[in-house]
Structure formats: structure tokens, C-alpha cells
């Protein structure tokens, strides 16, 4: 028997962490400015724990597995301003777990950006200097071996971009579909960032399993289209195995992956994305950071201006603005 999407998701262990549904709100000033009725923001910056943000949806499924395995410690790794690390610290606090964060970066002299909340949330932070992500993973593996005799660690792999982590955004699609239906909106295009592609995978997979209620446009902030699609394909395969529901159709036809707004790549502003941080804040009173969200807004605006959005446009705000305080 083939399970429905929601029934299949119910069978996967999940720790309830996020305040859901997150709001769906019109961006009315921008609508007027662009002369396009129906521009929305999905406020996943307001998922409710710590500073909020997209990764809390993934952490619900990852922490669910951790608890099922009897883990008492969550280990997450990332650069100093990693959104995932702060949200892992917040999730651990909520679930009564120890949290260890492994950073590739020097111990900062000042507690700026996310370093301050990480400490405040009770995480144990280990700074490994300017090593690359590969070495950082080795450090995590060594740490796990060290801890094995004294506690039960669970490692959040690959910045939560795993098949299980992607289920967070599979689960967000029926939530969004309900919100648009309640507003009487029948046609909408979702714009979301693609970094490692975990969130993108979930949106594309969830949208396909629901019968394509949305058009999905992923704005790459880091890699070229082919590389991002390869990440998505890999994560999708893992997600399909966990959920037991095959992806209906072809990945390329199920979404648009656009790499033309990424500039020099991850964390490097383009002139347009740099302007967008301030312009969006002044227009709508909402803060965005420059690594992921400002490039998506630039992309969405271009699509609207070019007449490539036939119905409503919806920008997925993935949060992360805590790092804004260390970006300028
Ligand atoms: C705020 C924010 N938005 C978007 C993303 C991109 O998510 P993904 O790596 O799943 O593509 C990240 C990843 O760290 C993030 O922190």
C-alpha cells in the first residue's frame, strides 16, 4: 500500500521543536512597488527556538532519531557563524541534551554574531582553527571515539543536509499548501535558497509528492546548477529511502535551479545582494542576512520584473540574521 505524504511522515521519529505553522504574510510595500499583487513571505525565520530559522525543521527529524537511539549529546559542526550550530544548541537546551559545537575557526576575541548565543544556550564550543570542512569532519569522528565510553553522542552530519534532515521541508509543503488554499490562492511560485541543497530537496520532494501545487525556484547561493542538482539528487535518494515514497517524475522537470544570482559564491555579496539587505529592511521592516536570503530576494525580484511569475510569488525566509551582526 502506498502511504499518503502526511501518513508517511507520521511514521518517522520527530522531536517537536518548532512553532508551526510559521506565518505566511503579504509583502504589501513590495507588491505596490513592483505592481505585482500577491508577493508573500513565509516566515521560517520565526520557527521559535533560539534565533529561529530553517534548520530547526530539519533538527526535528534529526533529534527525533537521536532520541530514538538513546543519545544524550548532540554534536554539530560548522564555521563560527553557522546557523545550524546555534539551532542545534537551542534544540539541545530544549530537549535536555548536552551540545558540543566543533568550529573551524579561531576562538574569537569578541563574542560577536552567533558566538554569544551559542554560549548563552549552554553549548560547549571547540575551536579547531582555520581547517577545511574535511578536517573538521575528522575532528568530529575523533571526538565521537573519545566520548564513546562516557556518553552517547549523535552527530548532525553535513550541516543537516541529509535525507532525514530534508524531511523538515517535505513536511513544510503541505503546511504552505494549506496556507495558500485558505487565502484562496491557486497559483504560487516558491523562491528558496540552495546552499548544500537540503532545504531545496525537501521542498522539491514534498511538492512533487503533493502533486505539484507550486512552482519551485531554487536560487543557488554557492554552486553551479549541475553541482547543486547533484547534491539535491543524492539527498533526495536518502529521503526516498527513509520515507518509502518514490519521487514521481524527473528532478530537472520538477523545479528550476538558477545559479545566476550567486556571484562569487557562498558568503560573498554581489552588489545587488548587498543593496537588498538594506532595501528590504527599509521596505518591509524585516532583516535578512547576505549569505542566503538577500540573493534569493534579488532573484525573486528579477523573476517578477521579467514577468516570469504568473501567480503569487512566495519568498521563503530561512532566517540566519544572527550572523548579520558579524557580517558588516
Ligand atoms: C539561513 C540559511 N538559509 C539557507 C540555508 C541553505 O540551506 P541548505 O544548505 O539546506 O541549502 C542555510 C544553510 O546553512 C542557512 O543557514
What's the CATH topology name of the largest domain?
A: Rossmann fold
CATH class of the largest domain reads: Alpha Beta
What's the number of helices?
12
CATH architecture of the largest domain: 3-Layer(aba) Sandwich
Ligands present: pyridoxal-5'-phosphate
Helix/strand/pairing class, anyone?
alpha/beta
The percent range for strand residues is 15-25%
Bulk shape: globular
Report the end-to-end length measured between terminal Cα atoms: 54 Å
Number of domains: 2
Report the helical percentage: 40-55%
User: What is the subunit organization of this protein?
Assistant: single chain
How big is the Rg? 19 Å
Write down how many β-strands occur, each being a DSSP E stretch of 2 or more residues. Answer: 10
Query: What would the average pLDDT be, to the nearest integer?
Result: 95
**Helix-strand pattern, N to C?**
HEHEHEHEHEHEHEHEHHEHHE
Low-confidence stretches: none
Largest sheet: 6 strands, mixed
- Kindly report the spatial arrangement of strands forming the biggest sheet: 1-2-10-7-8-9
Amino acid at each position: 500500500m502506498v502511504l499518503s505524504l502526511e501518513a508517511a511522515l507520521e511514521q518517522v521519529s520527530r522531536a517537536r521543536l518548532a512553532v508551526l505553522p510559521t506565518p505566511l504574510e503579504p509583502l504589501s510595500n513590495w507588491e505596490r512597488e513592483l505592481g505585482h499583487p500577491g508577493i508573500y513571505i513565509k516566515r521560517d525565520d520565526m520557527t521559535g527556538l533560539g534565533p529561529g530559522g530553517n534548520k530547526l525543521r530539519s533538527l526535528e527529524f534529526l533529534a527525533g532519531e537521536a532520541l530514538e537511539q538513546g543519545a544524550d549529546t548532540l554534536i554539530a559542526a560548522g564555521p563560527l557563524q553557522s546557523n545550524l550550530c546555534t539551532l542545534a544548541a537551542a534544540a539541545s537546551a530544549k530537549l535536555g541534551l548536552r551540545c558540543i559545537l566543533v568550529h573551524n575557526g579561531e576562538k574569537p576575541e569578541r563574542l560577536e554574531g552567533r558566538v554569544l548565543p551559542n554560549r548563552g544556550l549552554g553549548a560547549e564550543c571547540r575551536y579547531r582553527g582555520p581547517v577545511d570542512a574535511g578536517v573538521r569532519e575528522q575532528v568530529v569522528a575523533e571526538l565521537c571515539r573519545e566520548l564513546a565510553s562516557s556518553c552517547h553522542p549523535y552527530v548532525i552530519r553535513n550541516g543537516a543536509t541529509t535525507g532525514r534532515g530534508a524531511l523538515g521541508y517535505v513536511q513544510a509543503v503541505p503546511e504552505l499548501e494549506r496556507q495558500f488554499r485558505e487565502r484562496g490562492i491557486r497559483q504560487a511560485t516558491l523562491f528558496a535558497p540552495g546552499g548544500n541543497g537540503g532545504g531545496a530537496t525537501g521542498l522539491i520532494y514534498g511538492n512533487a509528492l503533493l502533486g505539484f501545487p507550486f512552482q519551485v525556484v531554487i536560487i543557488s547561493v554557492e554552486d553551479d546548477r549541475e553541482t547543486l542538482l547533484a547534491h539535491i539528487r543524492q539527498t533526495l535518494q536518502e529521503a526516498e529511502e527513509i520515507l518509502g515514497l518514490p519521487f514521481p517524475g524527473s528532478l530537472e522537470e520538477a523545479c528550476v535551479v538558477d545559479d545566476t544570482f550567486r556571484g562569487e559564491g557562498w558568503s560573498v555579496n554581489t552588489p545587488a545582494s548587498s543593496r537588498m539587505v538594506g532595501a528590504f529592511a527599509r521596505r518591509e521592516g524585516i532583516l535578512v542576512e547576505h549569505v542566503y536570503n538577500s540573493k534569493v530576494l534579488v532573484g525573486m525580484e528579477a523573476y517578477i520584473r521579467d514577468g516570469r511569475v504568473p501567480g503569487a510569488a512566495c519568498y521563503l525566509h530561512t532566517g540566519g540574521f544572527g550572523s548579520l551582526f558579524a557580517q558588516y
